[in-house]
Amino acid sequence: MNAPLKLRMPTSVEPGAARWDLNEIIATFRRRSRVFYAVATVIFVTVLLITLQTTPRYTAIAKVEIDTRKHEVANIEEVVSGLPAESSAVDTEVEVLKSRSLAERVVTALNLDGDPEFNAKLRPRNPIMSALSIFGVGDGPDLRPADEARLTKNHEAVVDAVLKRLSVNRLGLTYVIDIGFQSQSPEKATTIANAFADKYLSEQLQAKYDATQQATQWLNERIAELEPQVATAEAAVQRYKAEHGLLASVGSTLTEQEISNLNDQLAQARADMAEKDARARTAQSAAQSGSNGGNLSGPLNSQTMMQLRTQQAAASAKVADLETKYGPRHPEVQRAQRELADISAQINQELSRQVSNLQSEDQVARQRVASLEGSLAGAKGALIGNNAASVELADLQRKAAAASTLYDNLLNRAKQTSTDLGNQQSDARVVSRAKIPLKPSYPDIKLNLALGLLLGLSGGLGALFLMEGLDSGLTTAADIERHFNLPQLGAVPLLGSTTDEKGPRLSPSEQIIEKPLSAFSEAFRNLRASILFSKVDSPVQVVVVTSAMPGEGKTTTTFCLGKSMAMSGAKVVVVDCDLRRRNINRLLGVEPESGLTEVLQGLAHLDDVLIEDKASGAWFLPLAKSPYNPRDLFGSQAMDRLLEELRRRFDIVLLDTAPVIPVSDTRLLAPKADVVVFLVQWRKTPRKAIEAAFAMLRSVGAEVAGIALTLVDVREQAKYGYGDPGYYYRSYKKYYAS
User: Fold this and answer.
1) Is the pLDDT of residue 1 over 50?
2) What pTM, to 2 d.p., does this model score?
């Protein structure tokens, strides 16, 4: 049995090998150039026509600066703070300029609802769409009466149209914002751009005014709420102080002031008591020692004591003088001594009286000190009770102070916001008002043409590679080797692609006979050589010619191959094994009464049904038209015996079989042949179909010699596969005769 068909997967790309072959890319472009140019041209022309038919628009730009400096009229805290100098704040203002509310104000102010450029309902109707609206297609005239819902919907559509034409951009990292608007009229674009800037500034002022007014209203409401709370809290403090005797004067309570006064009085009383006690003790000591108090100060040195001491001194001097003069017993001396004793007695009496007075004063001072100490102790006890009550008083005072402070702050804030209500300033200013543009900004013809060219080239390349990716057929020997690991046996050209002759053309079989030196005839000789040398170890005699699908030029190729082999000197027979088509009869131009089926059934002899082609010397075994074809005709022993007989009588036996996929006959014949020649229509037969056919042949152990391409357009094939023989067709085509 012949060796089974063996296929392998395409080899992977080796590491370091180039994934892109420039020659393959060039070849791909050459063979798909028509598609590339067609798609690129269509896209470019479409962009050009759209650009030329587009209504030009003009863009006017107004510049607004976000002013971060504060222009304060009074040095007061603002209720609504100015815009902070932060990048995020500028970006926020950009979004405010893009807001729908601002656009609605502009639309209302400029009455853009009545402008056909923005209100599609006011534009002239498209005649075609108006006609289609009769059938419910398109946007025909709306004859319904206007209602609020429809008017609102139309107004929202106008706002959307205005927002689409609006462009707001921040200039780099600056605080300047460009407000651009695009319109068909340059004057209208300027008016609307300036309107957006003006409405933005007025909206800022209105927002600040509303915020200030709202803050003022809230403050007044809070003040009204806090006023009775403050009065109640202060009354509670006073009532508590009165109930607990915590009345104060100049920052302290009355009890604290009383204690302070008692402390002062007690200190003074103790000092006075100490002084009087000292005097009393001194005077008593002097009296007990017999002193006349002359060495004491204070009350003991009164005027009376001084006179008595003076008299005592005079009397004493007189006694001394008389004693010196008369002696101690003289009456005058005794009288003088009695005067002196009388004066001394008076002094002692006066001294006793003074000591008694001092003792009385000392006793009074002691009683006063004791009284003050008692009063001070009572005051201190009262203070301890007051301090305990002061804790709750302090809490009441804190609450009252907090309510009073909040009330005062809100009152001051209300006065400030009332003052600010008429002095609000915007946080932005118009740096440059929009000017009437002189040139249209849309469409940009140069940019559109460049974009159209780029899109055209991209679309052409995309279509090129898309078609290349969708091309699942085989085109070159490299494709056959890469996908199926089989050799290309040959390429049967499309007859019209090998000649430049005009007028009536010869049929393929006539071309083989009448023009044996043509490229078409040479292709069959190449195919013959490839088949005969496909097996090195044994000669090739019986050849099955088949394909995956019908219509791939199988019968024509087999018919011409048989003639070409016969003209080369071999004895060849072509057997029509396609029971359903019987195309050999058509090419021979005969309709035999007996054929292969009758020979296998023993109803006819082989020599009786063989037909010889006199021009080439080839023999043909056709199929006769029969209403009944027995089953398993090619798997019978009669078929085996017929093949043995054909081997003995002919050098080459070509079996023109049915396609592999739709019919099972070929799978019965393939194992009986030496080789199988598999035909594939150039660029048409899908690789999946070929793989399916090979799987069927592999299942019966058929040996496929290789693949032959049929119906090859050699001119187009020259655009494929750098290195493929077909690539050089233009170089060697003049070698063949026409």
Assistant:
1) no
2) 0.50
